[in-house]
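Please decode residue identities from the backbone states below.
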């Protein structure tokens, strides 16, 4: 089977390395496509993966601006804005503002008057926008690419960006009758980003919660949603620490005695200014009446996309506190992954605002704490995915620092009770097929099953579509800024090498 797996950029390989390897090991030809290379998963790292198996190769696409880009972006972004007018997002001010910032104010006001929190109008309006968007011609470069390379299965991630530029690829694949699968990259993607604006032939999700989101929030047919588990975490279940506790303490700068709390920082969108909050948190720890709390060590781990704020911060006045790695690090492979794993493994518990690392801490059976802060209201309770951790039983949640300290004392004194809840959450959210069952083989089987399905391709070229194109053409022509045509700028292996 020939598989073309398109990723917005190379960093998504961190979630799909195990999938690519197993598919290749099972004899399938894998072509990886990237919109750009992220240094967190560099070209050298991709080449290393490719060199493991002659069935894997990759290409990089240059940026493309084609005639219909502006109308397509506008209509897709408008759909995203409309999704956040759903009553379930009434407290999601920051999510709504992120989409609203990409649209003219007059458009927002008109749309809000029409569909605000009204399901009976909202989805018909979305479908109306989709009818208009479907009239936009297919990108001829993408059509030619698919015809030249003709995969049996087309996989795509993440697809749900605000502008949904990857949608052009999915539209072309469906038009040409190529079987397609959306790989949901993370726990927040279905609730936090754009709508799935063209329905693929399969949507691979982690758990039943995401399955419900795909159906209820995106109107995807339930029969097309496949629960595979979170394959990106498989390696955590089997990994072992690279350092002893004593070695790790020396490495990060903690005192070589006692326990420590790991504070997991969040992304810039979730917590743009986290330093002041962490100072207040540590100060409250030190003022606790419980010696187990006021003497505990603290390791602050900056988020790799939000580490600049930690460059010149000194927390030495608070006692046994360290910041590591100060410059941030994406825990994808090698030493950076070992450091991340060891920081959780050797900790007694973890604390954070809203980050996927909380789930990873749960896999290691560490109690996880969060404090509801007015400072982060819009990116805690203002996001649906945060509540998955709360309702699922992973998070020990408090509404103030004082309540948090009391909770911390209680949990540290009897961790075993809470660890049972943690394991149940991990089973439901990360490995729904069983704690001992790896998700990667299930995901790969779903791809192979997709190849065996009968799929009818979509062809729609009615007179209505032609009329809409004529109406949109002046807008497209006036907004078009010619650039160098899209081309493949890197090809790791010639086709002849794949035989």
């Amino acid at each position: 089977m020939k598989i073309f797996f398109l990723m917005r950029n190379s960093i998504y390989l961190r979630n799909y390395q195990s999938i690519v390897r197993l598919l290749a090991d099972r004899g399938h030809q894998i072509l990886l496509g990237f919109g750009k290379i992220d240094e967190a998963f560099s070209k050298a790292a991709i080449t290393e993966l490719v060199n493991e198996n002659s069935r894997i190769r990759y290409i990089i696409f240059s940026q493309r601006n084609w005639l219909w880009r502006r109308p397509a972006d506008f209509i897709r972004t408008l759909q995203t804005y409309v999704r956040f007018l759903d009553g379930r997002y009434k407290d999601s001010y920051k999510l709504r503002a992120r989409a609203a910032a990409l649209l003219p104010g007059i458009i927002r006001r008109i749309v809000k008057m029409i569909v605000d929190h009204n399901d009976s109008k909202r989805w018909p309006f979305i479908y109306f926008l989709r009818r208009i968007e479907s009239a936009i011609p297919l990108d001829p470069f993408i059509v030619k690419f698919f015809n030249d390379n003709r995969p049996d299965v087309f996989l795509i991630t993440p697809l749900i960006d605000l502008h949904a530029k990857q949608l052009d690829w999915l539209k072309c694949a469906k038009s040409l009758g190529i079987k397609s699968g959306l790989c949901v990259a993370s726990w927040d993607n279905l609730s936090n980003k754009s709508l799935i604006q063209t329905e693929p032939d399969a949507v691979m999700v982690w758990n039943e919660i995401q399955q419900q989101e795909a159906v209820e929030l995106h109107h995807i047919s339930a029969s097309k949603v496949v629960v595979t588990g979170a394959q990106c975490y498989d390696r955590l279940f089997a990994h072992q620490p690279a350092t002893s506790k004593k070695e790790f303490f020396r490495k990060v700068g903690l005192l070589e005695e006692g326990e420590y709390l790991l504070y997991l920082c969040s992304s810039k969108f979730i917590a743009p200014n986290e330093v002041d909050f962490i100072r207040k948190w540590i100060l409250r720890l030190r003022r606790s009446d419980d010696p187990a709390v006021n003497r505990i060590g603290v390791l602050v781990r900056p988020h790799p996309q939000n580490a600049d704020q930690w460059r010149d911060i000194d927390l030495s006045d608070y006692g046994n506190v360290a910041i590591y790695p100060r410059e941030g690090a994406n825990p994808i492979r090698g030493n950076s992954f070992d450091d991340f794993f060891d920081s959780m493994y050797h900790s007694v518990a973890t604390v954070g605002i809203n980050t996927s690392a909380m789930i990873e801490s749960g896999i290691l059976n560490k109690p996880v704490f969060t404090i509801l802060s007015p400072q982060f209201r819009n990116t805690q309770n203002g996001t649906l995915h945060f509540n998955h951790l709360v309702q699922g039983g992973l998070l020990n949640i408090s509404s103030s620092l004082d309540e948090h300290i009391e909770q911390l004392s209680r949990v540290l004194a009897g961790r075993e009770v809470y660890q049972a809840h943690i394991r149940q959450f991990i089973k439901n959210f990360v490995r729904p097929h069983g704690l001992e069952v790896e998700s990667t083989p299930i995901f790969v089987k779903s791809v192979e099953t997709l190849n065996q399905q009968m799929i009818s391709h979509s062809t729609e070229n009615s007179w209505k579509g032609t009329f809409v194109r004529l109406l949109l053409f002046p807008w497209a022509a006036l907004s078009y800024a010619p650039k160098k045509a899209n081309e493949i700028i890197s090809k790791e292996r010639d086709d002849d090498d794949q035989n």
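Observation: Residues 484-499 have pLDDT under 50 and may be disordered.
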